[in-house]
Specification:
The complex is a heterodimer of chains A (about 250) and B (about 300). Chain A contains 10 helices and 12 strands. Chain A is globular. Chain A has helices at about 40-50, 90-95, 110-120, 125-140, 140-145, 155-170, 185-200, 215-220, 235-240, 245-250; strands at about 5-10, 15-25, 30-35, 55-60, 65-70, 75-80, 80-85, 95-100, 175-180, 205-210, 220-225, 230-235. Chain A starts with a strand and ends with a helix. In chain A, α3 packs parallel to α6 (about 155-170). Chain A has about 250 residues and is of the alpha/beta class. In chain A, the strands form 3 sheets. Chain A has a 6-stranded mixed beta sheet, sandwiched between helices. With about 300 residues, chain B is an all-alpha fold. Chain B is about 70% helix and about 5% strand. Chain B has 11 helices and 2 strands. In chain B, strands 1-2 form a two-stranded antiparallel ribbon. In chain B, β1 and β2 form a beta hairpin. Chain B is globular and about 65 Å long. The termini of chain B are far apart. Classes of the chains: A alpha/beta (about 250), B mainly alpha (about 300). The interface of A and B includes residues 114, 121 and 170 of A. The structure holds adenosine-5'-triphosphate (ATP) and magnesium ion. Magnesium ion binds near residues 41 and 102 of chain A.
């Protein structure tokens, strides 16, 4: 288990946004989290990445400390489990959890290149930074063309690519994506989902929050359905796509 | 013509001080969206530290080229520490409260510093003169055309403008070319997104207060030499520098510089050209000019007019 959230409760003042939420993410998975507006998806991601403090529950992070190949089997040795609750957001980033926030939030007044350098803030070695830039420009060639342009002047799709590219600079183990398809044309959405799959194939585990339930469940291995602050359903993505309730509520039929 | 050039020199010299103070207002506003009303008093504390150090150094008969760097550095370090403490104790605990709470706290901190330094055991309410370490004298006199008296630039004018330019260059280099400067710009844009980049935003905010306060200290030392040291001396320059920052576009570093120099020039020129009986109104007149500019450009001369795509 890479990340497990246990009985998480989060309040905004008197409003309880999450009630005893528990989810688990295994290494290498794409896990989709779907739910209507106001269900609490963003709240969950912001709590995992340390921007919000929960009133109860725990978030355990347990990355493999070492991998050993023996007899055609890969054995993993797990390091100490860490509770993320109470850690600052920047400390959590350093553990290898990267969050692409809702609405992209690129630094509009800075250039594309500076945005990417900020994504690499935790890196020390110049060669790592250069390599990150190269990887990012390979994934998103359009960003290479615009690297000296201010991020605020990019199109919505390009901004989303920048936000994802920025989050990959530090080579995260877990990527939290909050509605990457928000407000984008279908063609761009397909492109973004293609890239999400590619990132996952390169070994990054992904927690994907989406309104676009169909797309999300198509790329995901497993999914959770959230409603008014609770997880009401969890299953293999393929099963959720066939689930009558899910079909009715989130897949438009 | 001669008169005008002389006023120009004086205006730039005074404006340099406003610019230095305005930088602190604008940087803190940039990261916290807070008007740090205690900033003018940090400038005052810089002047007080300069006074105390100057008295000690005069007692030791140290030459001016030794004394001045010690005084400037001492004031910068002292004010930097004060800025750090103010943020840590007064603003940080209120960070997630409505902004008005911090604003009122800032006014409280300002009053606290002013009253603390009026205490006789700390400084006292009577204005004092710095011991004559630096004798202010003309170092440049530039003959202009056929006029009889030359334009005079004093050593203090040179120090004031020279330090201001050096600080600006240093700050620009820091903000535009270093990793921490990039972090500062990210935090100014949006604090929580910056923290998602792995930036320790508290550290960046502390650093902003330290830098801004150290710049105010330089201004305080210059004015301690130019005028007198007085626990209430931060009031008027503080307000003027605040207006300068707003005029330049609050949050914008080049804006603070432009606003500071403009403020100094407008004030000095008005003082020079208003009929003598209206001289007392030169401050008010300066504010009127600035209000007029703001009416035309509400976000300030270099203020942000960026359109963000959603
Ligand atoms: N800053 C806030 N203050 C008070 N209530 C909030 C705040 N942010 C979110 N909420 C409330 O918490 C609940 C969950 O919000 P959240 O943003 O997590 O939903 P979401 O599932 O991400 O929705 P969407 O799909 O619209 O992005 C909502 O009822 C919302 O009104
Ligand atoms: Mg949301």
């Amino acid at each position: 288990m890479l990340l497990s959230v246990n009985g998480l409760t989060v309040c905004y003042g008197v409003i309880t946004a999450l009630r005893e939420v528990s989810i688990e993410i295994d290494r290498g998975e794409i896990v989709a989290l779907i739910g209507a507006n106001g269900a609490g998806k963003t709240t969950l991601l912001r709590t995992i990445s340390g921007l919000l403090k929960p009133t109860g529950g725990e978030i355990s992070w347990c990355p493999p400390a070492a991998q050993v190949k023996s007899d055609a089997k890969t054995l993993e040795y797990f390091g100490a489990t860490k509770d993320l609750v109470g850690m600052r957001a920047d400390q959590i980033v350093r553990l290898g959890i990267s969050h692409v926030p809702e609405g992209r939030q690129v630094f509009a007044n800075l250039t594309v290149r500076d945005n990417l350098l900020l994504g690499a803030f935790t890196l020390r070695k110049r060669s790592d930074i250069e390599e990150g830039l190269e990887r990012c420009f390979g994934l998103f060639p359009v960003l290479a063309e615009r690297k000296n342009q201010r991020a605020g002047t990019l199109s919505g799709g390009e901004q989303q690519m920048l936000a994802i590219g920025r989050s990959l600079m530090g080579r995260p183990k877990l990527l939290l994506l909050d509605e990457p398809s928000l407000g984008l044309a279908p063609l761009i959405v397909r492109q973004i989902f293609q890239i999400i799959r590619e990132i996952n194939l390169h070994g990054t585990t992904i927690l994907l929050v989406e309104q676009n339930a169909h797309m999300a469940l198509t790329v995901a291995n497993r999914g959770y359905v959230m409603q008014t602050g609770r997880i009401i359903l969890s299953d293999k993505a393929a099963n959720l796509l066939e689930n009558a309730e899910v079909k009715k509520a989130y897949l438009g039929g | 013509m001669h008169d005008f050039l002389q006023q120009l020199v004086n205006g730039l010299s005074v404006g340099a001080v406003y610019a230095l103070i305005a930088l602190g207002y604008t940087m803190v506003y940039g990261v916290l969206r807070l008007i740090n009303f205690a900033h003018g008093d940090v400038y005052m504390v810089g002047a007080v530290i300069a006074y105390e150090l100057a008295v000690k150094l005069a007692g030791l008969n140290s030459p001016v080229w030794v004394a001045l760097p010690i005084i400037f550095l001492g004031a910068m370090v002292g004010c930097g520490a004060l800025g750090f403490t103010i943020e840590y104790l007064c603003y940080r605990p209120l960070r997630h409260r409505p902004r008005l709470v911090s604003l009122i706290t800032a006014i409280g901190v300002s009053l606290l510093l002013e009253n603390l330094f009026q205490n006789r055991r700390i400084f006292g309410a009577t204005p004092r003169n710095l011991p004559e370490l630096l004798v202010i004298r003309p170092v440049l006199s530039i003959a202009v055309g056929a006029s009889h008296s030359p334009v005079i630039v004093t050593n203090l004018d040179l120090i004031s403008m020279g330090l201001c330019i050096a600080m600006m260059l240093g700050l620009s280099w820091f903000v535009l070319k270093t990793k921490m400067g990039l972090a500062l710009r990210a935090v100014s844009f949006r604090v929580d997104t910056a923290s998602l980049m792995g930036i320790n935003t508290n550290r960046v905010i502390s650093m902003t207060f330290v830098l801004g306060s150290a710049l105010a200290a330089v201004a305080g030392v210059v004015d301690a030499m130019r005028y007198q040291v007085d626990p209430l001396m931060g009031l008027i320059p503080g307000i003027k520098a605040f207006v300068a920052a707003v005029l330049g576009g609050i949050g914008s570093i080049p804006g603070a510089l432009l606003g500071g120099f403009l403020m100094g020039l407008v004030e000095t020129l008005l003082k020079g050209y208003l009929p003598a009986q209206y001289n007392n109104y030169s401050n008010a007149a300066a504010f009127v000019v600035l209000i007029l500019i703001l009416l035309v450009r509400p976000s300030g001369l270099l203020g942000k007019t960026t359109v963000e795509k959603v």
